[in-house]
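Appendix C reproduces, verbatim, an entry submitted by the partner laboratory led by Prof. M.T., so that reviewers can inspect both the input and the predicted structure.
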Amino acid sequence: MRSRLATRSTRVILAVATTVALGAGLTACDDEDLAAGGSGGAAASTGGSGGSGSTGGSSDKGGTDGENATDDKGVGQSCGANDLDLKITDADGGHYLIAAKAKSGITCQLSDSSAVVSYGSGEKSTTYPAELMGKPAPSSIKLSGSAEAFATLVTNSERAEGAPEFKQVKLAVSNDDTTPVSVDLPKSADFSAPVVSQWYSTAADAVINAN
């Protein structure tokens, strides 16, 4: 009986020892796996850094392209006088040529309406009849960079004697323009029932044929 108990006790001790040994082995394996996994995770993290995800984003020219796109401020918008460099030069027979160019960085559209010249106590020009022009005005003119638009101003369409003279006028690019600017004429001119042609893309087309 004592021999059987001893044998059983021995078996129990061996089983416990085996279980402990197996547990220790599994723990060691787990530790190694964890260590390897951690190292692998670090490598993966390093790989992400090596992939330069953030660097790739900064080198992507999308932001720069966006900035380039906005260089043309106001793309598609209607031009106002304050968007343009406006100049009035002398032409033959009491006619004056109005030239319009977009300011740096601006792109806008001039409609087929005519410029409006205000003078004196608020008198305004009227539009010269389109049917009397040599050719129809374009429906719109895109102004950007060096592109220009032209119109002709006749300050004294009635050829009235003793009409008041002015050297500076307020110029709007259309009846809807709420941003007129002051522009000097090359010399003082008589003003009586002034008329202005519609906008054209060339100075030749903007010439008013009737005197």
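Helices lie at 2-50, 53-59, 62-69. Additional entries are available on request from the coordinating office.
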